[in-house]
Amino acid sequence: MKKILAAMLSGILALSALSGCGTYTTDETSSSASTSNTDSSASGESEETTSGEGTTFTFIGGNPVTLNPILSQSTDDGNTFYLLQSGLFRYYRDEVYNEICDEYTVSDDGLVYSFHLREANWSDGTPITAEQFAYSIQCALNPDMGSPSASTYENVVGAMAYNSGEGSWDDVGVKVIDDQNLEITLETPDDIFILTLATSSLYPLQQDFVEAQGEKLGSSVDTMQYSGPYVLTEWKLDSSLTFTKNPEYWNADESFPVETVVLLKVDDANTVYSMFEAGEVDALAGVPAQYQDMLADYSTTQSGGDGLMYLWFNAGAEETEGDRVMANNNFRLALNYALDRSSIMAAVNPMMQPYSRLMIPVYEGLNGGSYVDEYPIECPPLEGDVEKAQEYLDLALEELGYTSVEELPTMNFVTWDADRQKLLCEAIIDQWKQNLGITSVQLDQYPIGTALGMYMSNDYDVFAISLSASLSLENSLKNYITGGDYNNGIWDCPEYDEIVAQLETETDEATRFDLIQQAEQLLITGSSIVPFYALTTTYAVQDYVEGFYMPTFGSGFQLNELQVNK
Questions:
Q1: CB burial string 411-443: b at 16+ within 10 A, e below
Q2: Residue range 14-34, pLDDT digits in tens
Q3: Predicted model pTM
């Protein structure tokens, strides 16, 4: 359940991507991934790029929830860590680049990864070592620390046994060879393991510092250590963060040229717009929906990679009459097909993309195109299909023993207490009323902690919340098996579980994609976990700014080549 909570919060706060690995430079070149990846040139930035000495970049974006790297679980945290910390690899412009790891090898059986670390320092000048990366993984897996990142390492030998309290850290497949060499052993081959490391929060941690800070870790400027391109020099909670260039960063001379970065949190959309128009800020990490048209000349929209907003129809509860109704597949199909996603999103948030499939467009298909184009499935049209929805409803009423929708019991639609979420859910309930005559769905909003608690205990009939995207098609499917991270007992399909299990051993690529298509179709037809819209990112930059980038996949304020040419 740690993983589902992290993914939900990521989706809430967020409002081919699977590229090869390469040397981390800033000239947008990379060597392709292989069993031996060597850093032949970390030179980075082209000669035309200025150093940015003395320059300041000010922008509006989300502030982090916590800068404790062990407990961090939101996209806003990840955006900030991108500037403050270094990993073995860095994800930039939808590609993976070497960072503290300057080369790595993979054993012939695909199980043992050997990483060699370059000479690099913390901001105080002390060396970054392999032991510190190993300790970071230990913190993520330690059951007493409660890290939401534990599932990142679920394929590492012994990791889940240690995380569950049944095993020892000594038996986990993470081995420190010496200060500059780290070895990680997997249970099964994983062709996206390097991508997983690059997009996860695997940053080095010094054990003595972590233990000295305790619960204060990451709560202020002085309770953090910095291995990345910037250090945090001022943090005004719920207001602003100031980042200053870190001269000890291993690639400081060739990347992240701007000297000072100021991140502001501004909640009022009118104020956000007026500050941008007045030139008081250089960029907006997110454009307010009501000002999308006015800022169109300054904006870039990226969609399909962040994740999805879902409706969850609880088909697994058995206590009330409402539970019995929601357990009926035809009733859930009726609710799904009755929704005009396009009109709802146009009214509620036109910057998000209506969507009704599980798989997002960034996933690659067998022939190199988008999976969703190569492998169509039967799913509700974005404008809905009221006639088909009514047919499903008639079947459901007959199966349930009702003669009309007026006999349906009250069902509770649970979500958290945000105005935009209220507007969305009310629009959905209104369409069920207008298109199917269903008036018994009641909206219940709670503080987010309470709402998530109700999700965990399955105390709802309908639930609405976002999930961040998984790294692969297979990972997406695994989340929804019986007992999976995103299926807390609300949907049970043995055929689906069997197909996903078969994918674990199937090696023929054409067969694998056919199985993925079959599994996706089963989940959508099951209409218990129902995609509603795809999360998108729309950011705006002033004309004098170059190189500001927000990723289509993953997180990070990617200021690697930022230029402020005022």
A1: bbbbbbeeeebeebbebbbebbeebbebebbeb
A2: 442 323 333 333 333 333 333
A3: 0.75
